[in-house]
Amino acid sequence: MDPFSGLHWWTSEGLPAVQGVLRSILPFRWAQYDFALNALIECIVLAPICAIMGVKIVNFRMAFFSDAISHSAFTGVALGFLFNEMFERVGRRFDPRVALILFGLLVGLGIAVVRRKTDLSTDTVIGVFFSAAVALGLAIVTTSAARTTEFNRYLYGDILTLDATDIALSAFLALVVLIFMVVSFNRLTLIGLNDELAHSRGVSVRAYDYAFSLLLALVVTVSIRTSGILLVTAMLVVPAATARNLARSAGGMFWWAVLFGLLSSLAGTVASFYLESIGTGAAIVLGATVLFVISLFLRRR
């Protein structure tokens, strides 16, 4: 089962064409390697949408929510490898990314529904789903010691091993996020300020809550391969938090977050080419953190 098998044009012509353009304008030795260019393209595509979603995460106080989704991805990956083993017995293959994305969407929607259907606080609901998802993932992984070796690239992320399918998924998701934000940015801002006021103005708060939760789950699960389960929340939160320190309006925070997300991602990726002992995901987050510290000093002034 490979739902991404239809990306033949992108794999054979689209991605090589983009790589050729970058290779012709970048005067660096590492730019001659396809895996390095793939990492650079992924940064250009993924960093802005993480920053865009991060603005709403910071304003909605949903950092714990995104963390729960990222850790639920652990179970999604475990299920993916489990299904793949079952498919291999009949001579087929199952792509673990399918289970990763679907399980993340399921957890995100489950949290949003239970949060609205019960009187439990948001952090309590998230804590329950967080614990259950991680426990289920550990139960699956411990049934086969051989599968645990496959989890490193998902736990820590490895942007240098991304393929054409990963980049195509990120590009498609970037288009979806852009369209969603163009249509609903002002409504989401109003909901973040006061959901009762938004409801009185005719905004369907519940529908936007569900839509944003599902979209956030998609962004988190697709970003796992880049930064890893342990660091994906930082890619969402840190650039947006940095932007909030400097911005004087909602629109300003939006553009500052995109800028800081791109800067930290590109700087971290390039730094990892020269400092081979440092993981790319860690370098990206450390770069974003440096920008955050600088923004604190600028804000005080």
How much of the sequence lies in strands comes to under 5%
CATH superfamily, by name, is ABC transporter involved in vitamin B12 uptake, BtuC
Number of continuous helical runs = 12
What summary fits the major beta sheet?
Answer: none
**Helical amount:** over 70%
- Which architecture does the CATH hierarchy give at level 2? Orthogonal Bundle
How would you spell out the order of helices and strands? HHHHHHHHHHHH
Number of strands: 0
Shape by Cα distribution: globular
**Which class of secondary structure composition applies to the elements?**
mainly alpha
On the 0 to 100 scale, the average pLDDT is 82
Please provide a brief summary of the model.
The chain has 301 residues and is mainly alpha-helical.
